[in-house]
Task: inverse folding
């Protein structure tokens, strides 16, 4: 296992994520598809970054690699100074659980668990005791305005409410980075705006946020916007 | 953490009730079949052994061959007779011989007809006592037959019951056997064997007269002097009868049975019945196991996205494996418990139906606590093993592939 730690003089400018010449190729019907073709990005602590681009531009693939859900074909990805390309699956799971909070377009809540249980779930995998789990999950659901919906199952919640549960879940292990893949894609503009507002608020609290979207209105909330096309950054 | 995984698995089964129950149905049926069949099988063994327990260890039975089914003697040409009786009486080691007749006759009472076994008892005191003793006959009301009781009979408890002739037969009543009237002077105490509960007994002279029997014997009971030599005496009887009838070994038209032989034969049959029964039950269990494996497999395919999500929020491969194995193990466990309950109920129901049909406590269900316990453990293990492969596959999914589905 190779662990490289990058030191930064200023805490506020601490590098949280660094992508160095990252490439991702797929073999599709004997043809090599370059989903991500040499990306270099550095994201510091507290940054609110949006990655935009048309579908098929490679933005989701890039996000999956940043989130340690997928490995790059070439290049290095540093998360908090650790090169994740050389880690075992169980170590990647630990990183995903502790350092990253995911928010998906389709919410991805566990249908058999209540809102509260869904928010508590990531803490189970980190071995957090029940009482602390419950207390923290209730606090987070209150924070996203769902204190009255804690015992409801996902199918009893509206789309906006589900996404807010997902945001609360992403925050449950107090990760440094929130990765959101089209978080407003399945919501109407009003609910989308509400969710975007939550990200804004989290950014102000010092969370690092990476938002993948093709909705420019939502992307505008970010401090910086990267535009991807054919697996390359065309504008920042 | 393990406790939390257990709760997660339980939660999953609880909130997908319909599917969970349907999966467990396979296991219910399998376990219920095993429990019911084994329970009844053991009960049957106990019952059949009890039928033979009245046979004493010092008596041999000589019968016309091929009389296992149907009325004794009906299937052979050369029947046992008093000449044979004499020969057997003279065999070394034989103490007393008693000739017996057993036939099926028409019985009338209260304008109703029934067909029952009719057996005789000899007039001589010693022989008569031997019959009473070997068949374990005791009066419940009235008394047993003694010399001079011509025109009188003793009947089994089932015949006296109201269900047979729609009217209880009491001591002192008259019944018609083959259109001749006989007075009932005793009703037999209920025995463990239905041959004592469904029989009518009269004196030998009466029976020969009634059925116009001249020189025929259906069965000879020979008491030996020393029970330890019963096998040797049996062999000698076989030999002299063969010589007298000029038959080769294997051509016998009679059979000499020791009580132990009879029990052995029955036990052999019961063991093979049990093997078949357990085989059938095993097949149902395998089918149940495949059912669980099938559901777990479908569940993995259906819940790929869920698995991906869990991985994204920090679940390790081993966590996913544990949750899925808990799920399938729990299905096996609950399936086993319910199966044992259903199986016990089923075998008790069958036994009580059989007993009310025979009007006697013939079949008792015997299901032991260790057996129940081992069936539940077995069922749990089936659940675990049939969930193993799908669970392993679930845990090995790449998070990004799982999320994409």
Result:
């Amino acid at each position: 296992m190779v662990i490289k730690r990058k030191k930064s003089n200023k805490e506020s400018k601490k590098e949280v994520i660094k992508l160095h010449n990252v490439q991702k190729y797929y073999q599709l019907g004997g043809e090599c598809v370059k989903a991500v073709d040499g990306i270099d990005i550095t994201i510091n602590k507290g940054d609110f970054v949006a990655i935009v681009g048309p579908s098929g531009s490679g933005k989701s693939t890039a996000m999956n690699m940043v989130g340690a859900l997928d490995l790059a074909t070439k290049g290095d990805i540093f998360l908090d100074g650790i090169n994740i390309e050389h880690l075992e699956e169980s170590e990647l799971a630990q990183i995903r659980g502790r350092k990253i909070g995911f928010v998906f377009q389709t919410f991805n809540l566990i249908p058999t668990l209540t809102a509260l249980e869904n928010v508590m779930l990531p803490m189970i995998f980190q071995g957090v005791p029940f009482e602390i789990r419950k207390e923290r999950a209730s606090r987070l659901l209150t924070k996203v305005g769902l204190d009255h919906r804690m015992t409801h199952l996902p199918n009893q919640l509206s789309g906006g409410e589900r996404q807010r549960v997902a945001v609360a879940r992403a925050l449950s292990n107090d990760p440094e980075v929130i990765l959101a893949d089209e978080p407003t894609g399945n919501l109407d503009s009003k609910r989308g705006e509400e969710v975007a507002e939550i990200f804004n608020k989290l950014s102000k609290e010092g969370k690092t946020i990476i938002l993948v979207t093709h909705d420019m209105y939502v992307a505008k909330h970010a401090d910086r916007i990267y535009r991807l096309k054919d697996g390359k950054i065309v504008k920042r | 953490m393990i406790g939390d995984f257990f709760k997660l698995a339980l939660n999953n089964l609880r909130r997908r009730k319909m599917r969970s129950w349907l999966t467990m149905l396979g296991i219910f049926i399998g376990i219920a079949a095993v429990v019911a069949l084994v329970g009844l099988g053991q009960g049957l063994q106990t019952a059949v052994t009890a039928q033979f327990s009245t046979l004493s260890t010092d008596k041999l039975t000589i019968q016309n061959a091929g009389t296992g089914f149907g009325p004794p003697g009906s299937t052979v040409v050369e029947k046992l007779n008093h000449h044979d009786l004499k020969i057997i009486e003279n065999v070394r080691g034989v103490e007393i011989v008693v000739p017996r007749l057993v036939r099926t006759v028409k019985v009338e009472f209260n304008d109703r007809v029934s067909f029952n076994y009719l057996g005789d008892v000899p007039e001589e005191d010693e022989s008569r006592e031997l019959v009473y003793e070997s068949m374990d006959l005791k009066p419940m009301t009235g008394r047993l037959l003694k010399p001079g009781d011509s025109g009188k009979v003793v009947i089994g408890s089932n015949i006296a019951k109201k269900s047979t002739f729609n009217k209880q037969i009491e001591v002192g009543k008259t019944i018609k056997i083959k259109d001749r009237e006989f007075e009932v002077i005793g009703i037999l105490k209920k025995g463990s064997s239905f041959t004592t509960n469904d029989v009518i007994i009269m004196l030998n002279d009466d029976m020969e007269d009634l059925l116009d029997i001249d020189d025929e014997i259906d069965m000879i009971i020979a008491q030996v002097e020393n029970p330890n030599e019963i096998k040797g005496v049996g062999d000698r009887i076989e030999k002299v009868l063969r010589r007298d009838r000029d038959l080769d070994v294997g051509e016998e038209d009679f059979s000499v049975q020791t009580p132990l032989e009879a029990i052995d034969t029955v036990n052999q049959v019961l063991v093979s019945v049990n093997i078949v029964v357990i085989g059938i039950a095993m097949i149902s269990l395998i089918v149940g196991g495949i059912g669980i494996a099938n559901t777990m497999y479908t569940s993995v395919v259906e819940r790929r996205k869920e698995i991906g999500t869990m991985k994204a929020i920090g679940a390790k491969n081993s966590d996913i494996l544990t949750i899925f194995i808990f799920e399938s193990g729990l299905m096996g466990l609950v399936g086993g418990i319910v199966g044992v309950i259903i199986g016990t109920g089923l075998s008790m129901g069958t036994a009580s139906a059989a007993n009310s049909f025979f009007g006697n406590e013939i079949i008792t269900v015997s299901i032991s606590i260790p057996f129940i316990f081992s069936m539940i453990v077995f069922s749990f293990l089936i659940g675990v093993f049939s969930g193993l492969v799908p669970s392993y596959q679930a845990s090995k999914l790449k998070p990004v592939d799982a999320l994409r589905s």
Summary: Residues 46-59+88-235 of chain A form a domain with the Rossmann fold fold (CATH 3.40.50.300). The CA atoms of residues 17 and 43 of chain A lie 5 Å apart. The longest strand of chain A covers residues 15-28. Confidence is low (pLDDT under 50) at residues 1-10 of chain A.
